[in-house]
Amino acid sequence: QLQLVESGGGLVQPGGSLRLSCAASGFIVDDYVIAWFRQAPGKEREGVSCISSRNEITYYADSVEGRFTISRDSVKNTAALQMNSLKPEDTAEYYCAARAPYYYDCSPYVIEYMYWGQGTQVTVSS
After folding, report:
1. Closest C-alpha to 93, from 113, 122, 68
2. Distance between CA atoms of 10 and 15, rounded to whole angstroms?
3. Each residue of 82-110: pLDDT tens digit?
4. Is 31 helix (H, G, I), strand (E, B) or coil?
């Protein structure tokens, strides 16, 4: 059974950093397109970052470009999102997601991701 479990969320002051982790079980994380989405209260879920499965090409939303970094750890079979210079507007529930295995490229659309974690809350506040 394919499963994704996020961790690493919490409360942080503006300008601080957090590292989110997404542990995969039932599949090899290197073989799947992995993305991070977030959803703030009253807003739609939006794509934050993505890493493709073949060429390790990474994508970032304009709002996080230069501050967030997505990565994969083959040994631990995890994906991660390093978040620096956090802002109050980064406050949201963060989800990791994986596309079906026959897709190799990233997509910004929620509907194109088959597997989802349960989410981890990130709150940026002083």
Report:
1. 122
2. 14
3. 999 999 999 999 999 999 888 999 999 99
4. helix
Cα separation, 122 vs 93, in Å, equals 6
Instruction: Name the β-bridge partners of 98.
Output: 34, 115
| 15 contact partners, CB below 8 Å, separation of at least 6 | 85, 86
Number of Cβ within a 10 Å radius of residue 113: 23
102 conformational bin, left if phi > 0, alpha if psi -120 to 50, beta if neither: alpha
Between strands 18-25 and 78-83, the pairing is antiparallel
Q: What is the pLDDT of residues 16-73, one digit of tens each?
A: 999 999 999 999 999 999 999 999 999 999 999 999 998 889 999 999 999 999 999 9
Classified as helix, coil or strand, 56 is: coil
What phi and psi values does residue 103 have, to the nearest 5 degrees?
-105, 140
Q: Is residue 60 left, alpha or beta, with left meaning phi > 0 and alpha meaning psi from -120 to 50?
A: beta
The neighbouring-strand residues paired with 47 are: 37
